[in-house]
Amino acid sequence: MCTTCESHDHSGGVFGKYTELYFAITSGIFLVGGFLLETFSGPRETISFYFYLVAYFFGGYFILKEAILVIAKGRFEIDFLMLVAAAGAGFLDRWAEGALLLFLFSLGHALEHYAMGKARKSIAALSDLAPKTAFLKKGSEVAEVALEVLEVGDVIMVKPNGKIAADGIVIKGKGSVDQSAITGESIPVDKIAIADMQEIQNTSKTITNEHRVFSGTLNGDSLLEVWVEKVTADSTIRRLVTMVEEAQQQKSQTQLLTDRFQKYYVPAVILSVCLLNFAFLVIDETWSSSFYRSMAVLVAASPCALAISTPAAVLSGIARAAKGGVLIKGGRPLEDLGALKVLAFDKTGTLTEGKPKLTDVIPFGNTDKDTLLATAIAVESLSDHPLARAVVRDGQVQLAGAKLPIAENLTAIHGKGLTAQLEGKKVCIGNTKLFEKKYKDLNDSLRELILKLEKEGKTLMLVQQEETFIGLLALRDVPRSTTKETIARLRQLGIQKMVMLTGDSQLVADAIANEIGLTEAHGSLLPEEKVSEIQALLASDGKLAMVGDGVNDAPAMAHSTVGIAMGAAGSDIALETADIALMGDKLETLPFAITLSRKAHTIVRQNLWISLGMVALLVPATIFGWANIGVAVVFHEGSTILVVLNALRLLVFKNR
Q1: DSSP H helical segments within 231-303, as ranges?
Q2: Which of 102, 232, 451, 638 is 20 to 30 A (C-alpha) from 309?
Q3: Looking at 154, 167, 346, 394, which residue is catalytic?
Q4: Measured at the alpha carbon of residue 159, what is the angle toward residues 153 and 162, in degrees to the nearest 5?
Q5: What is the reported pTM?
Q6: pLDDT one-digit tens code per residue, 227-273
Q7: Can 370 be counted among the known catalytic residues?
Q8: What digits encode the pLDDT tens for the residues 573-601?
Q9: What is the C-alpha separation between 236 and 164, in angstroms, rounded?
């Protein structure tokens, strides 16, 4: 691997971070001066020689410095051989060509480091988003403190047009917050204070995004008070920066392939160069001519452009994605996503709003509606499942503050429902899978009603007290307003199969799938059954991505080619489990991620053609003497800089 594709800190030089570039320019100035003196001064060649020596010093300083550091670590890289080529040119009294080699090589180094630094700055800029201090409120006093002293439960003041200092929950005030740095949302998001402080203490994980704010985001023109939910080290912005930095080290298949290629290619080049030194034994030329030819081949065959081509594109792609609110954890998911033709989706909270509403309360027999609701609310209040919260929330509105019984001894039955004790009686609430043996006891009219409600896309919950069904609850989770349009956009991008995997009944799944335009839907699935469906899709289609919330869908996401988590901002689990995290709770970000991935893949392919093509042209040209060291250096360094600049186009990729 070339040192050209690594990051080196030259900020400690006499000219700061631009020292390497200034050294390269100085080398070029003395190279030109030496050439002019040699051309026009006649016998005064000694002066031009000293000019070339100065050009050697400034051109070779950083290359030699890096080579020594690398060799000290027990590594041997092809860049070191460039120094050998320059020394060889001097040995043959070709000082001008040697100086040209070091000038262009050092200039290439400097420009690559500068260009790659631009990509890294896009990532490093994330860590600068958060302010250095916060306004901590204690009682009636407000003091400016360092972020590191903030603790969970503290209250901070956020001034109008100021940056939010910590992840937290709005407890006073309302306004809009620019979250584009975290979630990629171009429009400020409205925030309101949470009504019940008790909810923070008991169920902070279920608080909706309209109450949540993130460190590093920009407040609008209102004054907010925020309850600190995470310390600075655990904030979303800090975790995002850390994961993006780690992602740079995760290699794609193309990177691994080029690494394996270089493993065998570099020794082959070294062996070939050594053999070319003895060409004078076979053809009619001097040893010095053979040696010069081998030095030219050494320059031509150096795989610097190949080594930098893929990492530069991956780094730029990850940086651009982060700016758009998409965290891509490395080259592999960046490369894989664009090649996929199959997507699997969770339903609740991914394709739908994830906020089911209680639409039907149907009592059976002698049970009245209020009794059915009171029983259901008492049991469901023990659970934090989204459906349970919907029953409690909407049911309490319908009962208008009536006194409710108290249930106890909750037992959750995964994927089916729950049971509890209520006033000495066992109550079971769940889907039809929970009551497989008893469901057939329902009369035909009730079964027809259940079928009708399911065809409307509603989720049904039967309520059983002891051995008797006392009623039925129906809930409806509507598709997100942008889901249908996003699915259509994905189809335009060439996604051939889009599948819903849900724990809801097959009829509910079919109703939602037909409404938004999915290819197929699989309902009544337990989490382990979702994994089986993913494995079946992998067997039939080769590769696919699973899109979910990163919590209940973690096993399915882990078994897919690429796991994509929705609404990952503020969610530790989503950030950890996904290969790709959509920081905002917006499905419409997915087409952007796919098109960016495809653009990155195109640029990687272009870079490989440029780098390998240049080697294929230059090596024969130098072997047969058609190109000297100077020509080889110009084209070699030109191709290296070209692939870097080509990769940096991803930083300005437009989401159309």
Answers
A1: 236-247, 253-276, 287-301
A2: 102
A3: 346
A4: 100
A5: 0.71
A6: 998 888 877 777 766 766 665 556 667 767 777 776 777 778 778 88
A7: no
A8: 656 767 888 887 789 999 999 999 999 99
A9: 12
